[in-house]
Amino acid sequence: MEMKGFRSSSPFPYPLMATSVIALLVLSSNIKNCLATNTSYIKSSCASTRYAKLCYSSLSAYASTVGTNHTKLAIVALNVSLSATQNTSALVTEMSNRHGMMINETNAIKDCVYEVGDAICELQQSLEEMKVLGGSDFEYKKNSIETWVSAALTDDETYLDGMDGYNKTGKVEKSIRKSVKNTARLTSNALEIVDCLTQD
Ligand SMILES: *[C@@H]1O[C@H](CO)[C@@H](O)[C@H](O)[C@H]1NC(C)=O
Ligand SMILES: *[C@@H]1O[C@H](CO)[C@@H](O)[C@H](O)[C@H]1NC(C)=O
Ligand SMILES: *[C@@H]1O[C@H](CO)[C@@H](O)[C@H](O)[C@H]1NC(C)=O
Ligand SMILES: *[C@@H]1O[C@H](CO)[C@@H](O)[C@H](O)[C@H]1NC(C)=O
Ligand SMILES: *[C@@H]1O[C@H](CO)[C@@H](O)[C@H](O)[C@H]1NC(C)=O
Ligand SMILES: *[C@@H]1O[C@H](CO)[C@@H](O)[C@H](O)[C@H]1NC(C)=O
User: Could you tell me the distance, in angstroms and rounded to a whole number, from the CA of residue 154 to the centre of ligand 6?
Assistant: First the structure.
């Protein structure tokens, strides 16, 4: 038989077994690669969001967690939005304690602390709800998640409107504005990702 040469040089007694071991090795290294580097699912899911580039840059690091699971993608997106909101909150709190700002401005920033604090609660609530999504009342739960996320987005926007009348060239104002804007965009993307969820 043609296999004879192969058999004699193989460390395995059965050529078929040797072949399947090699096939398994190749397969498992492929899977590993694909989980570690394949970001095409994130890219294609982000393509339909309003801030697609930001969506991709903020979520691609989670490609191996997400795989091709849309529920996981939504959880990760909400979590990134929550983390950005927490960062904004820390920044705003720090800034509101600084000197050299007009008193009415300081008050506006303090209002923001509350607004952003609300947004944090709302996003935490939506993440809790994501855990129990599924079953017969899928649409109802999905709607309530969207309500929470929308409320968080509204809080961000309310703050941006509130700051409109204030020093547009101020360093502090600029950095807060930038942070809130980034957070609002991440939240908007998360909302769109949640909206695309379907029941399996
Ligand atoms: C990434 O995964 C998709 C399926 O989700 C597949 O079609 C594509 O070939 C993969 N790309 C790479 C580079 O592995
Ligand atoms: C997707 O992820 C969710 C949440 O982790 C899980 O409950 C669900 O079973 C997964 N779906 C598939 C098809 O793996
Ligand atoms: C959410 O992100 C935080 C870090 O910002 C991480 O510690 C936590 O495990 C994440 N949770 C989920 C459900 O992804
Ligand atoms: C929040 O801040 C931490 C610490 O500075 C940083 O590692 C993380 O990337 C930030 N998260 C977001 C979503 O901006
Ligand atoms: C804030 O107070 C300053 C100084 O009193 C005033 O000039 C400015 O118009 C006020 N800004 C707003 C938006 O009310
Ligand atoms: C606005 O901010 C700039 C830069 O920080 C500062 O030079 C300027 O005095 C501020 N204007 C007011 C009205 O506070």
Answer: 28
Two tokens, residue 6: 């192969």
In this prediction, residues 29-40 reach a mean pLDDT of 52
The stretches of 38-137 forming alpha helices (DSSP H) are 40-46, 52-59, 63-66, 70-96, 103-131
Tell whether ligand 4 has an atom less than 6 A from the beta carbon of residue 83: yes
Q: What does the pLDDT look like over 110-128, one tens digit per residue?
A: 777 778 888 888 899 899 9
Average pLDDT over residues 26-35: 42
Name residues contacting ligand 1 (CB within 6 A). 34, 38, 40-41, 68
Residue nearest to atom 13 of ligand 1 (CA): 38
Cβ 79 vs Cβ 120: under 8 Å? no
